[in-house]
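To the team - pyridoxal-5'-phosphate complex, inputs and output below.
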Amino acid sequence: MTVKTISSRKASQGLQWLELSQSALAQNVKTLSSLASGKQFAACVKANAYGHGLPELVTMLSKIKQVELLTVHSLAEAETVRSGGWTREIILLGPIDLAEAEACVQLDLQPTIVTKEALTAIGRVATKREQTVRTHLKLETGTNRQGLTEEELPAITKLYRKYPILKGPYGLSTHFANIEDTTEHEYAQGQLKEFRRLVSLIKAEGFKPKVRHTACSAALILFDKTHFELVRPGISVYGHWPSKETYLSYRLGGGKNDIFRPVLSWRTRITQIKSLAPDSFVGYGCSYRTTTKSKLAILPVGYYDGYSRGLSNQAYVLIKGQRAPVRGRVCMNLMMVDVTHIEGVKLGEPVTLIGSDGPESVRAEQLALWNGTIAYEILARLSPNIPRLIIS
Ligand SMILES: *Cc1c(COP(=O)(O)O)cnc(C)c1O
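Output:
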């Protein structure tokens, strides 16, 4: 996979592309590392780097020296990261296929251990290769997803004794269930307390884990106590707030506005313009009908690309710095917008689906609101097929 870097937005970019801003990325990392100063910084690049494009983000993050680690979900992602030239650390957050243990060790990954079967598989490979593997135990503190419970810990500690090459767990982690969806943080505080208790149980067994980590973006931004030795933010690295509640909690605590800049803009071009008489229907299901003589622009983007069908008759795009409302249903590969009120619109005119144009901007958070979801999903669903351009 080749990664394209350009210095200006004027280059010919086809009918649809994502622009990725290196300076926005650098600013977000700087902001986050100053909120968690002195801590190891692990940027999360799962889900194709939150839809931004994994090879591109590996190139971009490689240029930022504060980013000591990347976290990924799967072995396949880790392979892409290594083949993109990343030589720093990688934590695998997701489960491993037991047959993948060897590949995991070969790529020098740090697996998250959530079963004794996985630890056995890693222990065997490490012993055979005489290679220490840094393993991270994920502890159950109330999310009830991946964590190991207190009852499961004795079997785990026994396995660490059986495979001394591992030198015990290198990292201990947990994940919060209810930190971004609320401005009330008692549940997260309870999880933190439970994490500390489980950590001390493991230490009492004679193990000396080097890093403890619990902080996703919301935890990093709101609570110093969650930082421990390492933080592992995702969405905020890309310049987005985890939620409105996180933003409100941060501002109520005296935090400043505008500390993040979105890294990604999504643009396309008008491929057709047509005039419609009053009372004309637009698109599948005749869900929109014009009330006046109208001018419609056809865009070569649809739900296949990640522009959700739920945005039909809901969202607007930006053309010449003005809003152009989506008319009718978003199709698989096409959509229609109203440009009646915009002067001088031509074929090939650039269109902003996410990002800024003049005084206007459309944020992923706004599309999420219109679509009844969260910015995470809007971003993660951007098709990997859209060309990505790094703006240096
Ligand atoms: C995705 C993920 C993160 C990052 O979460 P953000 O809310 O995007 O910062 C951190 N830790 C784990 C375990 C994750 O799965």
